[in-house]
Amino acid sequence: xxxxxxxxxxxxxxxxxxxxxxxxxxxxxxxxxxxxxxxxxxxxxxxxxxxxxxxxxxxxxxxxxxxxxxxxxxxxxxxxxxxxxxxxxxxxxxxxxxxxxxxxxxxxxxxxxxxxxxxxxxxxxxxxxxxxxxxxxxxxxxxxxxxxxxxxxxxxxxxxxxxxxxxxxxxxxxxxxxxxxxxxxxxxxxxxxxxxxxxxxxxxxxxxxxxxxxxxxxxxxxxxxxxxxxxxxxxxxxxxxxxxxxxxxxxxxx
Length: 254
Description:
Layout: H1 12-21, H2 28-50, E1 81-87, E2 90-95, H3 97-117, H4 123-144, E3 148-151, E4 156-159, H5 161-166, E5 177-178, E6 182-196, E7 202-215, E8 220-226, H6 229-243, E9 247-249
């Protein structure tokens, strides 16, 4: 007897988790149901984006004085971080499954290229490409998905392994952001175009979404920047509730 699962009651994060772990060959009908519900969530996102007022319409005059251009010039088309509430006083961002998977594939591909370099007709070429591919995978894992934490007990926002481990060290160049200095959460979108792959032969086109912290002095601090718009909206709502500050949603549907 087959167990019927009602995926309509799943959250977006739960649907993503189910899609990641399900055997689509063994359960094609369940996979179809999951994709159907994911499409419904994305449609809800588009409707919310379409109803979002432009920055000039925000009630807070301070919002009109803040820069609304994208803060980051690098982005990923997939979700790079996963937001997790550790306790009532701490919420953390860690590398997502997608980030770990893509970084691992890059590293493994690089090792494969270096392995076959000795038996190929162009050993130097494959060796160099292999080493660069390994470095790219390690770079994205170590720096592209920096761990982050909002800690109410310490009263700080920590970004990166150094700050999380040594945020009380006065010798650190980049000081943590104090939570009481955060005025609002800013959301921005942009359309990314470019090339990737060997010889820049692959066209890259996707919408990227930023979460930035707006400080009381007018400065902005980027939190995340990736292509999963629904997740960005969901994260922003959680951060807004946790930090007790408003969300300035400047995402424009296009």
